[in-house]
Input
Amino acid sequence: MKRASDILRILVFLAAALILNFPVIATLVTSLKSNAEIARNPGLWVEAPTLGNYAAIFDAAGRFDVWTFLNSSLVAAAIGTILPIIVCFPAAWVMARRGVGAAILFPATVNLRTLPLIVFAIPLYIMYQSLGLLDTRLGLGLILAVVNLPIALLILVNTIRDLPVDLEEAARMDGASLPTLLLRIVLPLCRPGLVTVFILGFITAWNEFLFGLMLTTRDAVPITVGASFFFASGGGGVEWGVAAAIIVIAAAPPVVLGLFMYRHIGGSMTTGAVKG
Amino acid sequence: MTGIVLDGIGKTFDGTRIFDDLSLSIRSGELIVFVGPSGCGKSTLLRLIAGLETATEGRIEIDGRDVTQSEPHDRGLSMVFQSYALYPHMTVQQNIAFALHTERLPRDEISARVAEAARILKIEPYLDRKPKALSGGQRQRVAIGRAIVREPKAFLFDEPLSNLDAALRADTRVEIAELHKRLGATMLYVTHDQVEAMTLADRIVVLKAGRIMQIGTPHDLYTAPANTFVAQFIGSPRMNLLPCEQMDSTRIRLPGGSIEIPSLPCRPAQIGIRPEDLNLVAPTEGRLRGQVVLTEYLGADRCVHIDLGEVRVTLRDAGSSPKIARDGEEVGLAFDPRRAHYFDAAGDAINVISVEAA
Output
């Protein structure tokens, strides 16, 4: 009796997992099929698995150099993730502890996130043109930093508010200067918040499409935009196998990052700091 | 070894007046305890001295130097927080050494001082652990270690024992008293627990709503409380307060009886009698008569609660007392009027030297 119910439960779980992950599985499976098989066999079973689609992608050169796309995405996403942390950490401390800007600047900054990003498009294009930032990884990274800034500030302000004030007062009694206090005491205690900001920010930055499409043309094209080039790379109709493979390649880095860093999200650094 | 002087301290917090013209002088090497009910301002007073809060008015001097506007670390004080406030990402060793690193002391001096502090507090086995791997008592020791390693001018303790269980609290209390003897340092200690205050203090400052009610040695406060607040705050069970009424020039009426006092300096409105100054006697013999409500047996002592009409009093005598007090029984209460405390209508003590027993 118990076995029967166990089996049933596993079947239900499997069905749910299959349905929820169907798009991912279908893409993964398609990327391993040859063009001939895709046309013949729409099912989830691969008859003759091949890495030919991947090989085709990595063999492509010039405008289709996937390494350049990946590199651009990595550099721009890194700038777009780390810069908001550097800017927001001291700002968040001042807002949380001194109340500076807590009334207007903090909510206003967080509300930036509610604006559709397209609002920035035209003025930004003109600004970038005059600054020479068009089609540069730095330029793409900077706007991704602006996209990530509100959520970084929100998470860091809340993380710092949750830290016991006693620890900072103890550090002041111990003679810590403001930089020492921030770097040696507050920063390590904010690690869970920093990791959360990093992961969410990196995923957002990596997956960003609009500004990549608008602000880059050749040298700094990110993988999301670059991937779209492959859809029509055959000249005629869409090459589904290559398209699926490039989607898998483009999606892999944030997925891997999320899997490795997930356990660092949340959780408290301050266990044992206060009380018994 | 430092004297600390507070002169005319005023503090307003979000529009609320917490202190008004508070002055206090703390002698070098003294262990002084700030005690009072919650919200009396005792922790705020400690934080003002520490520099974690800034006084709105007045001066704070440490060692004759005006530190009113100085940063906390410039005052040369160490503080032990109620929550311990250990840095959770650092080992015990790093926690204790942190202040010495910020002072940029040479490395070998830092390790020597940390080792000495660890030896004094017997925390050597835990030096490489993080705070979360320590028990409450061990964390408390690390917090004290972090304070003594700086060799401060004075130690500030903010309710350091309130997170420990009862047994550990009693042990740690003794250790803090020993530490004070050994270091001979000035210590300021905040607690709401009058037992801690009585056992530790050279002098006690009793605070109520931001005002100093009395300053004195534990003995002074116990034997000569300046007002009914101090009288009832110090001592456990607390002092019995009986409303009284002058009947004629020598007699005072109390609930449940009357007493005769030949030369009263002025009219007392209340009489205070410590529970241990009351004696159980036959109903016909005592100065007061009442009915036993409840007896609490504590081993060495017992507390007998007695109804005297509208007020209830507590009597404490030996647990082995042969006098049986059954619930509901009519009893007499005797006391020596010379050991009683007399208060006026405002609750201030009346000088009792001239009061003699009938």
